[in-house]
Amino acid sequence: MATFKAIRIDKADKGTTAQLAQFDEAELMDGDVTVRVEWSTLNYKDGLALTGKAPVVRRFPMIAGIDFAGTVEASSHPQWKAGDKVVCTGWGMGETHLGAYAEKARVKGDWLVALPQGLSARDAMAIGTAGFTAMLSVLALEKHGLSPKSGPVVVTGAAGGVGSVATAVLSKLGYHVIASTGRAAEADYLKEIGAAEVIDRNELSAPAKPLAKERWAGGVDSVGSTTLANLLSMTKYGGAIAACGLAAGMDLPSSVAPFILRGVCLLGIDSVMCPIEPRKAAWQRLASDLDRTKLSEITHEIPLDEVPGWGAKILAGQVRGRVVVKIL
């Protein structure tokens, strides 16, 4: 095809525009693998790019979308051949490299991971960067030494994409999961996917004390700011919090007290430039440790042409769980 459908972001007099358009194949960027994209997904960063609320997009025009799953169409990379099923998340797609909301993508073969056995392309995008980030967080907590015997774990932003997958995975692994959310109406949903307790995010929104009552052995935080500061102050001796998001802000109004008086660790999680071996490990664990029934429960499907309108929804906290985008 000389042209293909894509969600194109362009500079405008005020901000940016994002709309479904025809994109010329000749405009695809350099890469040694061309993929027929079948499924993508909607992440918080996609919402920022689609709405222009943050300077996520670094070149124009840009095809939005930071994740895809599909089939290799052509390859000069030694690891991949036509017909291979692949997943790609991060690496600057939708930011500096033309992204995933398109019928075709051209990327570096070193960015790709083989679709794990037992996962469909749709499943992989139901997971997406949000679920991948959640699993990287779980792996980091395990590496720190946490196990279900260590005590409860807390998940913030639990009704969102990262939080939903983290809750489902941690509960399947046997952890007592305390889910924090600002959406009281989602309590039943969170319990269905594995939360043992649901708390209101307001419990974590007041200015943090240097040290507060110990409540959990670890946690996964996608919120940041005061919420993360409170999590740290309430973490048990020797515990750890995996920080992977900034929905409430980039600041961290905390103190050194949790670190030097309780030996608490703050584990930073980056999914964008994560090396390939940890990527493979995370995807294999997702294939085995994420209940498919729960994955189905947290997933909603939309067509490509509805993507621009969903950008504002995810930023407003109006999206529950995961959104998959049907491309072909």
TrEMBL record:
PANTHER family cross-referenced by the UniProt entry: ACRYLYL-COA REDUCTASE ACUI-RELATED, SHORT-CHAIN DEHYDROGENASE/REDUCTASE
Designated name of the protein: Acrylyl-CoA reductase (NADPH)
Q: Which residues form the Enoyl reductase (ER) domain?
A: 15-325
InterPro entries listed in its UniProt record? Acrylyl-CoA_reductase_AcuI, ADH-like_C, ADH-like_N, ER, GroES-like_sf, NAD(P)-bd_dom_sf, Zn-ADH-like_protein
Q: Which domain of life is it from?
A: Bacteria
Q: What is the lineage of its organism?
A: Bacteria, Pseudomonadati, Pseudomonadota, Alphaproteobacteria, Hyphomicrobiales
Pfam families the record matches:
ADH_N, ADH_zinc_N
Supply one GO molecular-function term: acryloyl-CoA reductase (NADPH) activity
Name the CDD domains on file: MDR_yhdh
Organism, as annotated:
Bradyrhizobium huanghuaihaiense
